Automatic annotation (TrEMBL):
Signal sequence residues: 1-27
InterPro entries recorded: DUF4142, Ferritin-like
Compositionally biased region (Gly residues): 198-207
Protein name: DUF4142 domain-containing protein
Record keywords, A-Z: Signal
DUF4142 domain mapped to chain residues: 51-187
Lineage: Bacteria, Pseudomonadati, Pseudomonadota, Betaproteobacteria, Burkholderiales
One Pfam family here: DUF4142
Domain of life, per lineage: Bacteria
Ranges for region Disordered: 28-47, 182-207
Organism: Massilia timonae CCUG 45783
């Protein structure tokens, strides 16, 4: 009788120990799973190629520069067509910049918060101009020149992109930049009077 009671107690202790052991193992497994998930995320960020990282940085800089120069043109130009073009740059590139910032954050890329030396110099040069001279310089540099350079970088980035989200953002920007370049070239050639209305109407449908 006494032996039976001892056996029952031993069995109860064994069951309790087994239960606690299972709970402990489950907790450890959960912790390991969480650690693995964190490591996987970090590994995913680390796998971003230098080319993809550069593409994000370039998109951030070009969009920021277009917004800044567009705002400058809005305040300095007296030409209705130039002001309309500048507003389009602020709107389109402002939206694109927000998208690039979201992408950069998800990929662990820190974007610059101010213009680089080249764009600062360009803005400083424009700041000193006024009237027709400003309009021509803005359209030539901030319109035609900047968009040609951006388009070349985007097309190269699209071909070499490894990350699907980076490539998706690059490919989304290409037709917008192509449209901007065409509009800027029309302004530069003095043809915007015949095509400006359709270009302005296309602003809302470019996104």
């Amino acid at each position: 009788m006494q032996k039976n009671q001892i056996l029952k107690r031993l069995m109860a202790v064994s069951v309790a120990a087994a239960m606690f052991g299972a709970v402990g193992a489950q907790a450890q497994t959960s912790q390991q799973s969480g650690a693995s998930s964190t490591a996987a995320t970090a590994s995913s960020d680390a796998k971003l190629t230098s080319a993809d990282r550069k593409a994000i940085m370039d998109m951030g800089m070009s969009n920021m520069a277009e917004v800044e120069m567009g705002k400058l043109a809005q305040s300095k130009s007296q030409n209705a067509e130039v002001k309309a073009f500048a507003q389009k740059m602020v709107d389109d590139h402002g939206k694109a910049l927000t998208e690039v910032q979201t992408l950069a954050q998800s990929k662990g890329v820190t974007l610059p918060t101010e213009l680089d030396a080249k764009h600062k110099a360009m803005s400083a040069k424009l700041e000193k101009m006024s009237g027709d001279a400003f309009d021509k310089a803005y359209v030539k540099q901030g319109g035609v020149g900047a968009h040609k350079e951006t388009l070349t970088k985007l097309q190269a980035a699209s071909k070499g992109a490894k990350d699907p989200e980076v490539k998706g953002q690059v490919d989304k920007m290409i037709p917008v930049v192509q449209e901007h370049l065409k509009h800027a070239e029309q302004l530069a050639q003095g043809k915007s009077s015949s095509t400006g209305s359709s270009g302005a109407g296309h602003t809302g449908s470019s996104h």
